[in-house]
Amino acid sequence: MEKTLAKKSFSQWVKKLSSWSVYIPRKDEEGRWNYAEADSGGVSLDVLQTTLPPKKILFPQREVFLEFAKTLAGNRETLEIKEVLPEVKPTVIIGARPCEARAAWMLDEVFGGEFKDAYYWRRRDQTALVGFACTIPPSENCFCTSVEGSPHSEEGLDILLTDLGDRYYVQSMTAKGEKLISAAKELFEEPKPEARKQVKAAHAESEKKIRRQLKDARPIAEKLKGMFDSPLWDEESMSCLRCGICTYLCPSCHCFDISDEVDNPSPLRGQRVRTWDTCQFPDFTMHSSGHNPRPDKASRLRQRLLHKFQYFIQVYDKFMCVGCGRCITLCPVGIDIIKVLDKVRDHGA
Amino acid sequence: MELNVYTPKLAKIVQAKDEVVGTRTIKTFRTEFANGARFDYRCGQCAMLSVFGKGEAMISISSSPLIRDYLQFSILRTGRVTAALHDMEVGDLIGVRGPYGNGFPIDEWRGKNLVFIGGGIGLAPLWSVVQTALLRKSEFGTLSLIYGARTSRDLVFKDELADLKSQMPVHLSIDVAEPDWKEFVGFVPTNVLEKKPSPANTIAITCGPPIMIKFVIKNLKDLKFEDDQIYTTVENKMKCGLGKCGRCNIGFHYVCKDGPVYSWAELKKLPQEY
Questions:
Q1: Which of A108, A188, B152, B167 is most buried, taking the most CB atoms under 10 A from its CB?
Q2: What is the ipTM of this complex?
Q3: Mutate to test the interface with B, among A63, A64, A65, A66 (most CBs of B within 10 A)
Q4: Average pLDDT, stretch A11-31?
Q5: Mean pLDDT within A318-332
Q6: Contact at 8 Å (CB) between B27 and B75?
Q7: Are B5 and A116 a contacting pair, CB within 8 Å?
Q8: What is the CATH number of domain B9-100?
């Protein structure tokens, strides 16, 4: 389904979605842009890249898996376990960048498959993604076109909005998308033939505006298979502070920890939680014996890059990188994934 | 309600036995499910055990899947969860989820001789296959075990090993001589060269500390075992058991899901990241 929506009607549409939880980029108290629930105030898509991708809406930084409690009746102790699956109302993320939706399309692989992750799918099944095509690149480090994405890619999206000056061009790809449009169908108009032309031109133009490029990503993936023992990882990881920012702010990184939190030691009461974790921390892989298969920064940088550019492709035939550039922009010491992979490509050439 | 792969089943400890006391303490537990839940598994698979309030740990199942009354786990006290497990008693409840991993391809080994080679706590995952092979003895050729530990005190399943000697050749070893020790003194890989198992129609299955496995494989190769005649298990830190949490991988393989059992032919192709 294709429509147009006048920009002046955009806030009204969002208001009409009152039975949904609506997330949209918002400025937090410290002045950072992040996805947060829309309130009655004005909403706008006039935002460049948010600090955090919307990943946390589908895969929260901390979530409770189950609660446990012991009760003492006389001298008989009983242990009770209560599974806590999230109760999620229909949710829509408006203004997600196409690359951020592609990340959800990658996370679907991780949390799906033989062992479905009920916590993820409870949220995912209820969530619609309304993307906003990047007619202006949201970051100087965007390189989506190098990793099989584009500023107007549709993977993972239910609706794609494209800025046409005074209106948005609205493409709905799924039943979820059509539901969102029908919630306020009086606001949407049939697109005029010239609007169709304009949107095509805007999409073509948007690809040219992406400033950074990683050439030959697929051949690099192939070449990485022979570079496990390369000295490159040592050289490139030298300056790493092992802060983990590159992974925590990444839309597709999904490594996690499961641990128990105790609220009351006796009688025992607490919860089992899942929290984000990172392959950049030394104890991520450390055995209880003290042995660590990834004992240094070199092996951990290698793991991050190989997971994204070799292993994920071997299993799912997709890169596990959407080219948003956050890991480049926000790394405190300037480790640049494109430059590292450039060196892989040019190695021995 | 949809199946939740992270929710453990409650199981009661019905037996807790000291295997090894001292600095490297090992206990063997048997558990029964509180509500008679079914738990089908294959030899060599693992289970994620919970001590609520402490966390979870991945432990190999040492009982045979043919024995349906209980699950058995032999556990070295080494971290927070295993220490808490060691402090538990008969009647206490733990959580069990799984089973996880690929297990040993025991059906492919029909008609072959099996030689088991273990070191220390590494006998636990082998024990499941040893017990199963004994229960299905007519399907296999000759069975034998080469097993060692640092000292005679560090051997696990001491009582069961005495019984096992009536059913298959058992070659024990300890690393350093002791006054009453009548069997081999030296490392397990050396005992393998000493006992010279024949590679003819034989599968060697080895499990133990990584350094032992490395030299056992080297020595088996010297005895002319082919890569696909040697099986071993890999251990890495795990949290989910489902190939999602991202830490146990060696290359694109998740040990929890695609392992922990590998033939040497498969394992040698993967990066040495374990």
A1: A188
A2: 0.93
A3: A66
A4: 93
A5: 97
A6: yes
A7: yes
A8: 2.40.30.10
